[in-house]
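Need Isoprenyl transferase's 3D structure for a figure. Predict it.
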Amino acid sequence: MSNPNAAVPHHIAIVMDGNGRWATRRFLPRVAGHKQGVESLRRCVKACADRGVGVLTVFAFSSENWNRPIEEVSGLMDLMVLALGREVPKLSQDGVRLHFVGERGGLSEKIAAGLLQAEAATAHNTRLVLNVCFNYGGRWDIARAAAQLAARGEPLTEANLDAAMALSHVPDPDLFIRTGGEQRLSNFLLWQSAYAELFFSDRLWPEFDEAALDEAIEVYRRRERRFGKTSAQVTGGARHDPQAA
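Structure prediction for Isoprenyl transferase:
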C-alpha cells in the first residue's frame, strides 16, 4: 500500500545517465545525446515543480568526467555555456532557484562567471530549488567539509560535517533516481543519500519522461521509510517485530 505520509518526495536526486548511449544507438556524436539530455532535464524540472517537489538535485558533470574524450568534455563545457544563456531566464520566470554545487577552481572564467550570474538571477525564487552538481564528487564533498572544520578548529562530528556539506542548504534526498540501467551511486551524494530510497530505471536519460518520473514517485510512495526504527514504531502499531530492519 502507498505511504500516505510520503505522497510526494520533497527532495529528488537524479543521476542523469545514458545520454552518450542514446546518441550512439542513433549513430550520432555523444554530444548530441547531452543536448537531448538538456531537453529531458527541462521537462523533468517542470514536472517536479508541477507535482509539488521542493528540491531537485541532478548530477550534470562529475569530477571523474574530465577523463572522458577531450571532444566530449569540450562539447559539455560549450553546452553548459549555451544552457546558461538560454535556460536561466525561463527557469527564473518559472520560480526555480538555481544552485551549482561542485569545485569551481578547474572551470573556465566564462563558465564560473555564468554560474554566479545564474545563481544571482534566480536567488529570489521559491517554487523549486534546482541543484546542478557540476564538477562534483561525493568524496570531494566529504573531504572538503572535513577540511573546512579542521581549518576552523571545530570538532569532526556528524552534525558539524552535515552543516559543512555542499548541500547543507536543503534537506537530504528522499528519492534517489538513476537512469540508464546501471545500479550504482557513482560517487554522487554519498553523505546525503544515507537514507534515500533508491530507484533504478532502465530508460536512458533522454527517454526519461513525465510517466517515468511518476513511476519512480509511485514506487517511493509504496515504500515504508523507517530510518532505523521498526515497522511498528513507524506505523504506530503496538507490537514489536524483531525481524524488522
